[in-house]
Amino acid sequence: MHDNDLAIDIRGVTKRYEEHVAVRDLSLQVPKGAVYGLLGPNGAGKTTTIRMLLDIIAPDAGSIAIFGRPNHETGLLNRVGYLPEERGLYRKMQVRRVLRFLAELKGLKAGDADKRIDEWLDRFGLKTKDRDWGDSKIDELSRGMQQKVQFIATLIHDPDLVILDEPFSGLDPINAQALKDAVVELKRRGKTVVFSTHVMENAERMCDAVCIVARGEKVLDGQVTEVRSSSGRRNVALALVGNTAARPSENGVGRVLGDTRLVRHFDDNNRYFEIELAPGADAQELLHRLIEAGARIERFELILPSLHQIFIERVGASGVETGMSGHG
Amino acid sequence: MDKFWVVAKREYLERVRSRWFVMMTLFVPVFITAIFLIPAWVTARSASGTASRNIVILDATGTGLGKRVADVLTRDTTAVRASNAAPAPQPQVREVTAASLPAAEDSAMRAVMRPNNLVGYLVLDDSTLSTRRIRYAGRNASSIVDTDKLKSAVRQAFTAVMLQREGVKPETISLISNLSLSMSQTRIDERGKGGSGQAAIFLGVGIGVLLLMSIIFHGQNVLRGVLEEKSTRVAEVVISSIKPEMLLAGKVAGAGAVGLTQQVLWIAISAYLITNFAPLVLKSAGVPISGAGGSGALGVSFGGLTVGLFIVIVLYFLFGFVFYASLLAAAGSMVNTEQDAQQAAMPVMYLLIGSWLFVNSVIVNPTGTIARVLSWLPFSSPIIMPMRMGLSPVPWTSVAGSLAVCALGCVFAIWLAARIYRVGMLMYGKRPSLAEVAKWVRYA
Questions:
Q1: Which range has the worst mean pLDDT, A123-127, A214-218, A236-240, A253-257?
Q2: Measured on CA atoms in the order B221, B222, B226, B227, is the torsion positive or negative?
Q3: pLDDT at residue number B292
Q4: Regarding beta strands A235-240 and A273-277, do their DSSP bridges make them parallel or antiparallel, or are they unpaired?
Q5: What is the ipTM of this complex?
Q6: CA torsion sign, A195 to A200 to A203 to A206?
Q7: Distance CA A27, CA A23 (A)
Q8: Considering the entire predicted model, what is its pTM?
Q9: How many beta carbons lie within 10 A of that of residue B296, not counting itself?
Q10: C-alpha dihedral over A295, A299, A305, A308, to 10 degrees?
Q11: DSSP A32
Q12: What does the alpha-carbon distance between residue B170 and residue B121 come to, in Å, rounded to a whole number?
């Protein structure tokens, strides 16, 4: 990949705090126009990485480039939009004035900002015939509205790179859907979107590429399809008729799934089992044995392991626990 | 630099728009005007009061003492009155014998009790000359001004009677009784005479109080603003767009501009109120008004305030404000709650209040060692130096030097504050110890 095609290029970055290393020798590349997921348990170093990316804190070692230039270069961050994990705005200020202030901080002229603010307020339903919330104080808005305003603030200057730290936390399904749509639209317009999350399903649905970090170190990164297929594992999704909560161990199916020559591991997802085949085992043989055992099969599908599975396998329980104390 | 202005502009506009600012800006001048005018009004009123004249003097001394007291009261020149007012009443003198005194006193009391102009009666009995005792009863018996006036009138009359007894010529006696003194106080500095001594003290202390109040008030505002940014978490968005040092500088500049605006408005509104209300107030108190305006009548003069001094005061305010506001901003960035903020601000406030504790010794001796040392220290000179300059001449080299030290102090304060601020703004959790803060400064 050519350097000029990179939106973000982090090389060998380390950040130490007094007692612990928040990020250790982290390198990752985000191509332009990609939707990129930064995955990891709480305290893995995601927020620290994002803050270093935005030049809020300085790394102890390593280099960070955005669009091929060092990230502390003047004016470069005007092309970046940031939604922090902890949201908040000036409570006593009018919505319009807050947005204008934040837009001006990104180098927008007040006049341009005002025009865009109206468009965004309109689009997010904050300006209707009955009521213009733009003239209200932040305090007077509901939580959902405040989140919309914060999101507008992130995008008001039409950034080429959008960084969202845990954007889905605290969103109801409708707002989560709106956020997903917004991300897809940004990608369609050629923008680069990086978001951190510990909800793997979101990442799997939306991301072109991901990086999994734990304990401040990169566990793996790459295209989502590559990551999923490169694990060298073959999985089978198995759903049985009428078997939603039945215990497989109580019948022949249980004996088949317990056969370690065929199955290395299985995970009961309630609606279906995600089965990891043992090395050298044949999916056809498993199917044959299951039918022999009297299973009434609704779904039998060869699938790639989910990011969630990979995450659990690679990060493990220990990675989650050690990180619980600090900020991500 | 553009972003610096964006921050300063927000800081300024949001504060100036607040209800609190409008209230303080209007209330303080009203308060100052009241402080000026109420004592002036009280003085003017009591000076012009004719109550002390509208009395009956019961004279049983047989020496004409009562007549002389009446003369002194009538001559009293401090009792100025509006030219269109009715002629002031004359004290009535009743010469009585010692035997008829009780009856006369009784009738005088009844007269005072009736709703008429008579306010009281003065008794000079036959033993007054030897015992030096007099008695007064009246509606205004608790008025210090009136009774003082009465006492001093009797004293004068007494002196005249004694002199007469010693055989002093009547002309000499009349000369002595009519003797009046007036003293004007003029301050001298190396440029010659200028302003009155009283005005200088007033100006010096006034400037000091104003600077101290502004620094405390608006400095605390900066602290609260930083705390708000931190606790609402808006700080992180802001810091992702602007360097923390620039943000800090913009905030301090914006709040400082608010302080300056408020002071200018305070002075302008107070001056307007005093000049416009003083004539009304004094007129209602019966003082004749010359065309010169109220402040002249009050004897308040801003004559000591030259353009040079004004510029220097503004510079000291700016330096003092930047010094303290930066440190207070750093204090605000270290903590998460208002209570912790007050504690974190304590060391900074000690510096400020500590400087103020020496104000008395500076006023007493504006050229003394304490005054000179304090006007060279960056944390105290913004308050002490303008005051010293108001009180006594200070060589311009000292002023320039002290301003330079202040500027250096500001650079240091901003540097220190920016380092604490940079780390502190994103630190949540418990309040850091001093050792931890020292570490931030080293690592930031």
A1: A253-257
A2: negative
A3: 40
A4: antiparallel
A5: 0.78
A6: negative
A7: 10
A8: 0.73
A9: 14
A10: -100
A11: T
A12: 28
- Give chain A's end-to-end CA distance (angstroms, integer): 29
Q: Which residues of A touch B439 (CB under 8 A)?
A: 18
Q: In this structure, are residues B88 and B119 in contact, taking their beta carbons and an 8 Å threshold?
A: no
Which of B6, B236, B240 minimises the CB distance to A86?
B236
How do B192-193 and B188-189 pair as beta strands? Answer: antiparallel
CB atoms within 10 A of CB B419: 19
Q: Which two tokens mark B279?
A: 């004539």
Q: B148 vs B44, B80, B81, CA distance in Å? A: 16, 17, 19
Please give the DSSP secondary-structure letter assigned to residue B421: H
3-state helix, strand, coil in chain B (%, to 5): 70, 5, 25
CATH of domain B51-177: 3.40.190
Distance of CA B200 to the CA centre of its chain: 12
Q: CA-CA distance, A245 to B395, in Å (whole number)?
A: 93
> In angstroms, rounded to a whole number, what is the distance separating the alpha carbons of residues B283 and B289?
7
pLDDT of residue A185: 92
Q: Is A155 on the interface with B (CB under 8 A)?
A: no
Q: A144: which 2 tokens?
A: 């959902």
Nearest alpha carbon to residue A223 among A205, A206, A209: A209
Q: How far is B6 from chain A (nearest CA, A)?
A: 7
Cβ-defined contact of A84 to B236 (cutoff 8 Å) = yes
pLDDT tens, position by position, B38-66: 777 776 665 555 666 788 888 888 888 88
pLDDT-based confidence at A322, cuts 50/70/90? very low
CB B80 within 8 A of CB B288: yes
Identify each DSSP E strand in B131-214 by its residue range: 135-138, 188-189, 192-193
List of residues 6+ apart from A283 with CB closer than 8 A:
A234, A236, A277, A302
The answer to whether A233 and A305 are in contact (CB under 8 A) is yes
Per-residue confidence at B81, pLDDT binned at 50, 70, 90? Answer: very low
Is A264:A277 a contact under the CB 8 Å cutoff?
yes
**Contact (CB<8Å) A93/B228:** no
Which part of chain B has CATH 3.40.190? 51-177
Q: To the nearest 5 percent, what fractions of chain A are helix, strand and coil?
A: 40, 30, 35
Would an 8 Å CB–CB cutoff place A91 in contact with chain B?
yes
**Degrees, nearest 5: CA angle A162-A164-A167:** 140
